[in-house]
Design brief:
The protein is of the alpha/beta class. It folds into 3 domains: about 120 residues, Rossmann fold; about 70 residues, Lrp/AsnC effector binding domain/regulation of amino acid metabolism (RAM) domain (Alpha-Beta Plaits, 2-Layer Sandwich), CATH 3.30.70; about 80 residues, Lrp/AsnC effector binding domain/regulation of amino acid metabolism (RAM) domain (Alpha-Beta Plaits, 2-Layer Sandwich). Helices cover about 35% and strands about 25% of the residues. The protein is built from 10 helices and 13 strands. Helix 2 packs parallel to helix 3. It is elongated, with a radius of gyration of 23 Å. About 40% of the residues are buried.
């Protein structure tokens, strides 16, 4: 039986041409239109006992880019061979990223099927690595500390700087950021405050406080990924979650996003957004309909473009509200 290879490309015609060409060259080729579909396909084939030996993915995909896809794949199946294809003009920097993330090759586009087929055979035959052998797990993840987000609308008659200083020192407040929005003026991140105590916390710390017009408390609850995706996300967090080099875009501009999502798509959406470079933090909301994100980038324009190009179009996104963090001042502190 020939080597099984999965072709990941969002352009239908190009994907099917490559699949057909590889088939004529003796490879058993499957196809996926985006990164998430590729993760599902790889896991299902591994569980079926007929795993893919290699994945060939475009560097640019509509949801998870090819380099992050290879990191997810390798974190669960180290023996799986992953080849990333990139336009000729970006092939050199992409090849550096592919190497850094543990990929096996970067191939410039347009792809030559004969050369690609030979490369896949060489890669899959070079070692005895088992593409279906999952990396050892790290055991059950520790239970997350109770957390919540609080969005505070300010009374314009109050002193916002004084209010912010007071709330930053309130019990349970881990983060207190000033934001620019037509309604909300502060975003608080609470830690160690159980969902059952949120109402009491709000009454104690916010209700009746000078400068607070209204507030909304959002209890945090991490979405549960589909069974086929859980191992990839756990492996990615284990391998790269604590290393900022692998998942962060440096910058002096930040925004919170409140993403309204269609409930059936929430868990898949969480996985897609978790690996986005600009995402510093992501939480589900206990209502099962929203995600709360913190993004960072070089400037506000860059973040707006990324939101429009990479977040709003994602399947399952119903509405996105951006709460732009007041820019850093010269000392690196955020101020009004």
């Amino acid at each position: 039986m020939g080597v099984r290879v999965l072709v990941v490309d969002h352009e239908v015609a190009a994907r099917r041409r490559l699949v057909a060409a590889l088939g004529r060259l003796g490879l058993e080729a499957g196809e996926a239109a985006d990164g998430l579909a590729a993760l599902y396909a790889v896991e299902r084939q591994a569980r079926s006992g007929a795993p893919f030996g290699a994945v060939v993915a475009q560097a640019v995909l509509p949801d998870i880019d090819g380099v992050k896809l290879l990191a997810l794949l390798k974190s669960r199946y180290p023996g799986l061979r992953v080849v990333v294809t990139a336009p000729a003009e970006t092939a050199a920097p992409t090849a550096e990223l592919v190497s850094r993330w543990g990929g096996d090759a970067c191939v410039p586009q347009p792809v030559e099927p004969e050369r690609l087929a030979a490369q896949v055979r060489d890669l899959t035959g070079a070692t005895g690595a088992d593409p279906a052998r999952a990396a050892p797990g790290a055991g059950p993840a520790p239970a997350a500390a109770p957390g919540a987000w609080v969005l505070v609308e300010l009374d314009r008659a109050g002193d916002p700087a004084q209010l912010r200083a007071a709330l930053a020192g309130a019990t349970g407040v881990a983060v207190c950021d000033a934001v620019r929005d037509e309604r909300f003026g502060l975003v608080l991140r609470l830690e160690g405050v159980p969902a059952a105590d949120l109402e009491a916390w709000g009454k104690r710390e916010l209700a009746g406080r000078a400068g607070v017009k209204s507030y909304e408390s959002l209890a945090a609850r991490t979405p549960e990924p589909a069974d086929e995706l859980r191992g990839f996300l756990e492996g990615y967090v284990r391998e790269h979650g604590a290393d900022p080099e692998y998942r962060r875009v440096a910058g002096r501009s930040a925004s919170y996003l409140v993403v309204d999502a269609h409930p059936p798509a929430l868990a898949d959406l969480y996985v897609r957004l978790y690996v986005l470079d600009e995402v510093l933090a992501i939480d589900g909301v206990a209502d099962g309909r929203r995600l709360m994100l913190l993004l960072q980038g070089p400037d506000a324009g860059y973040l707006r473009r990324r939101i429009e190009e990479r977040i709003r179009p994602l399947e399952g996104v119903a509405r996105v509200r951006e709460l732009r963090v007041v820019p850093f001042d010269e000392d690196g502190e955020r101020g009004r």
